[in-house]
Amino acid sequence: MSTPILELRDVEAGYGPFRALFGVSLEVGHGEAVALVGANGAGKTTLARAASGLLTPTAGTVLVDGAEVGRGGPSAWRFVRAGVVHAPEGRSVLASLTVEENLALSFHRAFGRSGLAGALERAYELFPRLGERRTQVAGTLSGGEQRMLSLGRVLVESPRLLIADELSLGLAPMVVDQVFETLSQIRGAGTALLIVEQQVGHALELCDRAAVLEHGLITWQGPTSEAGAVLESRLFETATTELK
Ligand SMILES: Nc1ncnc2c1ncn2[C@@H]1O[C@H](COP(=O)(O)OP(=O)(O)OP(=O)(O)O)[C@@H](O)[C@H]1O
Ligand SMILES: [Mg+2]
């Protein structure tokens, strides 16, 4: 078997004295798409951040291509350089710059001057709305449009592994469909995915495998075809426990 792009081994992480992950192990192989599902507060965002170097685990290791990244403190840029990119939560746009200036800033860094025009074209293809509003100041875009802008910046760079935390949060259903269509295209082009998503149906449709996180522990992993039944029984168990 080839070395996975990403491997978490017995990762523990938390915030000060609070522990959020209790020894989590998870792999994402080349071109594979994995959905991470679980209740609010289960630790999904913490896992996504540890998997992309934004948070230092208190124990365990994070391996990219079989090698430990960031011995002596992980830095997100080492992950980015290895092609592991965390799609920013919320609206990470520069409010006083136009749509095109925001995109150009990222693409110039990623592709250099010669690749800029092509990258802009791809972004506008992915999100035609951004093309229509290219001269608008980003701070005045609607919430959904700002999400598209921050997403466009990441997706055009075609990372080897995209770690996406709640991409669809706050987007209208039609835009959510569009985002998942885009993820599916990116996947088709060879990018591996680790998807954290409240829209579980969409995520399971897109992914090969699913992992269920409960109270900081992975309690189930398997093919997405089996995940629906598992989740249904888990949710039922949770609901009945809470009723007691
Ligand atoms: N900065 C922080 N300081 C203290 N505790 C935190 C911090 N961030 C998260 N937590 C706690 O860690 C636990 C896991 O949070 P996390 O954000 O990983 O959950 P999640 O599965 O992403 O939840 P959601 O579905 O609501 O986004 C929660 O109990 C949360 O309150
Ligand atoms: Mg979260």
What is the element string, with H for helices and E for strands? Answer: EEEHEEHEHHHEHEHEEH
Could you give the order of strands across the largest sheet?
A: 6-7-8-3-9-10
CA radius of gyration: 18 Å
What structural category arises from helix and sheet content?
alpha/beta
Terminal Cα separation, in Å? 46 Å
Number of domains: 1
Name the hetero compounds present: adenosine-5'-triphosphate, magnesium ion
| Biggest sheet layout | 6 strands, mixed
Strand percent estimate: 25-35%
Low-confidence stretches: 239-244
Number of strands: 10
Commentary on this structure:
The chain is of the alpha/beta class and 244 residues long. The protein has one domain (6-243): 3-Layer(aba) Sandwich (Rossmann fold), CATH 3.40.50.300. It contains eight helices and ten strands. Helix 3 (99-126) crosses helix 5 (143-155). Adenosine-5'-triphosphate is lined by residues 15, 18, 20, 38, 40-46.
Core attributes:
244 residues; alpha/beta; Rossmann fold; 6-stranded mixed β-sheet; 4-stranded antiparallel β-sheet; 8 helices; 25% strand; binds adenosine-5'-triphosphate; binds magnesium ion
Question: Topology of this structure?
Answer:
Blueprint: E1 6-15, E2 18-28, E3 33-37, H1 44-50, E4 59-64, E5 67-68, H2 76-81, E6 84-87, H3 99-126, H4 128-132, H5 143-155, E7 161-165, H6 173-188, E8 192-196, H7 200-206, E9 209-214, E10 217-223, H8 224-243
Parallel strand pairs: 3-8, 3-9, 6-7, 7-8
Antiparallel strand pairs: 1-2, 1-4, 4-5, 9-10
Helix pairs in contact: 3-5
Bound molecules: adenosine-5'-triphosphate (ATP) and magnesium ion.
